[in-house]
Design brief:
Blueprint: H1 2-28, H2 34-44
Length: 49
């Protein structure tokens, strides 16, 4: 019985990690808003470097 519980815990853990990675992948594939790109370009042109 104890082995079955550990197998269930392992399956749930792997499922949670895989689900999180898939959500992260989907979030990273979303297009970036133009404001973010503009702000990044402003930071690149910093004359204090």
């Amino acid at each position: 019985m104890s082995t079955g519980i550990w197998v269930l815990v392992a399956v749930l853990a792997v499922g949670a990690i895989a689900g999180g990675l898939l959500r992260m992948r989907a979030w990273l594939q979303k297009p970036v808003p133009p404001e973010v790109i503009e702000a990044a370009h402003r930071d690149d042109e910093d004359p204090n470097d």
